[in-house]
Amino acid sequence: MDQAALDFLIDLLGRDHVSVTDADCDAHSQDESFHPPHCPDVVVWPENAQQISSILKYANEHRIPVTPWSGGSSLEGNPIPVKGGILLALYNMNQIIEIREADGQVVVQPGIVCDELNEKLARYGLFFPPTPGSSDVATIGGMVANNSSGMHAVKYGATKDYVLGLEVVLPDGQIICVGRPVIKSASGYDLVRLFVGSEGTLGVVTEITLKLALVPERMAAVAAFPSMEAAAQAIYEINRYGPIPAALELMDPQIIRLVNEWKGLELAEAPTLVMEFHGTPDGIAQEVELIRETCDYNGCTSFQMAANPTERARLWEGRKEAHNACKYLNPGCSAEIGDLVVPISRYAEAVAQAYQLAEELGLRIATFGHAGDGNMHVEMLARKDDPDEQARAEEFNVRLVQWALSVGGTATGEHGVGIGKRQFMRQEHGAALEVMRAIKQLFDPRGIMNPGKVFPDGE
Amino acid sequence: MHAIVCIKQVPDTTEVKIDPQRGTLIREGVPSILNPFDTYAIEEGLLLRERFGGQVTAISMGPPQAEEVLKEAIAMGCDEGVLLSDPAFSGADTWATAYTLAWAIRRIGTFDLILCGRQAIDGDTGQVGPGIARQLGITQLTYVFKIREIDFQRRRVCVERLLEEGREIVEAPLPALLTVLKDINQPRVPTFMGMRRARRAQIPVWSASDLAKEGADGRFFGLEGSPTRVVRIFNPAQREGRAEIIEAEDIGQAANVLAERLLAEKVV
Question: What's the gap in Å between the CA of B43 and the closest CA on chain A?
């Protein structure tokens, strides 16, 4: 990047908000994924949409790549500035602009962390439901960019279902507002949904209007099963005959063994369902009773329940720590995490498929995931100093995703395409990929926004 | 079981800015919230009620709008709230506040436990809880991070206190006053069921004359009853920091030099 560009940025933002130091560039070179780091040429910390508009206008004129970054907790390399250029750090734009209590809405800047938003909303009895497992660090801006969701998607859906409006800075510097702060609208193309999940490739989101939900009463339950088949049968019956819980998570014995070791827990090393129920006390009591009956019928060996938050957190701890357990108990290994989704009727088959493939390729894996919405995570543990094992992990990932696509699934449920899932875009979307390219071309003809993401190379 | 939880409405200090000239807080436009430390006291009361049954009463002293935090306590699950509000109470320091709250607690009647947060985030003194215990002549257990055992028949409570030098396990007779730390539990957030109850809840407001009827001495309320006088508010002088880069042959030697420096500076 030339000095003129740096001078422009310093003039615009002030010296304190522009950095080319190794420390700052390093800190914005890698997310939580296994993808290799890549440093930007400069890190900038803008404070408002107007500044971002000026930056994009300049970058567009001079064809400088711009990569937005808010929390850096993504799992597919989504904010890694693979083409260098300007790293747009948005996490200082972290204010709540307005809480509209009576409308059940909140207007926020992109940098606010999901858990911090929900803490601020708690006193109003309102919350933003699609919390990912990383909600303590994930920002709302990043969640919008990746259409994130988490364990409660089975009841509440994903981020896309809560975004009512966005202020977006387009690559040419134009600032537009899309959507209206209402529950329904039949007016024109749904540009909100176009930007949600676009991973910063179409523009920079600077303000977000979210729909909120009423905080329900909650109950957590954990059921252990003698075999994966028994657990799978219970999942099938719950999904098919109800009642549908607010969360329905399956952990395999391998992942239970890892979290026991990691957190000193004493969970039975058995296929385990972790569930949550939301609603009124009487409604929850009935739902739990019906689910318990289903679990018992399918041979469950233990069924624990908890209502207060302290006890609920204890039941959830194992599931919440699953990824960390894989990561920290296997130093020297890359813990690549898969994120495929299959139709819920194929969920148990997906788990079986993963283990069959792992055996065939001689690979260590563990699975956990959202059995209620068909989203399975697979941790592939491959030693970094073993190129052969790394290659087998890659082959495993490709073959498993291809299998998921062949049964009507998708390559990513909540982590986004980023770098790692680009190779599946053609297979998943076919001719629709060209429509996506045309949209990208319309918004960003010079290709400055988060280049190297979403679209496959060399086509 | 009857637990009384003392709570306070405070400015959201995460939103407070400081007037650089006068060194005072700019309170205009700052939202008021339930003191975050008090939510742990409320939660502990609710957990005890889940185990033993009974009642949790929230009490607060403040201007009429402090009713909001009592409604929030009811939304979390408290059974009742009582607001002490009277111009005569205003300007109270920690002693007068403790005096007033203690008389209100006498008026409430019998109880097993009084629960308070460790301190309020605005005053940061941590004195009101212990002050109430002293006024009522009951045992105070501060910095509690775990209730190990509580026996309402034998009238005993055993708690773990988190102190700078370690953990302390102490047993005391009931009734007792506990100030709790945030490690003690994870507070629940108000649900829509709680919000529905809170919306319709009637919060009785007790005045200076209500407490005087119980025997309180009106001369000890509010600013007049406060021995504390604020003489001046100022920002302490900023300490100058300075950086030093330790040069050494290798990492091991650098670590030795660093360790020696830290010991010399009494940092470790």
Answer: 9
Q: Is the ipTM of this complex over 0.95?
A: no
Site of tokens 């099938």: A236
With beta carbons less than 8 A apart as the criterion, state whether A213 and A122 touch.
no
CATH annotation of A96-214:
3.30.465.10
**Which of B10, B48, B191, B199 is best to mutate for the A interface (most A CBs within 10 A)?**
B191
Residue type, A32: E
Phi, psi of B49 (to 5 degrees): -65, -35
What contacts A353, CB < 8 A, 6 or more positions away?
A400, A403
Residues of the domain holding B142:
2-220
Distance from first CA to last CA of chain B, Å, rounded? 46
Q: CB distance B192–A125 less than 8 Å?
A: yes
Interface membership of B77 toward A (CB under 8 Å): no
Bond preceding residue A456 cis, omega within 30 of 0: no
Q: Would you say domain A3-89 falls under CATH 3.30.70.100?
A: no
The predicted-structure confidence for A27-39, as pLDDT tens digits, reads as follows 999 999 889 999 9
Q: Class of the A217-323 domain?
A: alpha beta
In a domain, B200, yes or no: yes
- Report whether B81 contacts B74 (CB < 8 A): yes
Please answer whether residues B41 and B152 qualify as being in contact, where contact means their C-beta atoms are separated by less than 8 angstroms.
Answer: no
Coarse DSSP helix, strand, coil percentages of chain A, rounded to the nearest 5 percent: 40, 20, 40
- Interval A121-156: pLDDT, tens: 999 999 999 989 889 999 999 999 999 998 999 999
Chain B residues whose CB is inside 8 A of the A309 CB are 43, 185-188
- Give how far A270 is from chain B: nearest CA, Å: 28
CB A309 to CB B72 under 8 A? no
Q: Are the CB atoms for B76 and B194 separated by under 8 Å?
A: yes
Q: What would the two tokens of residue A5 be?
A: 């560009």
Check: pTM over 0.80? Answer yes or no.
Answer: yes
Cβ(A199)–Cβ(A78) below 8 Å? yes
Our count of domains for chain B comes to 1
Where are the CATH 3.30.70.3450 domain residues in chain A?
A: 217-323
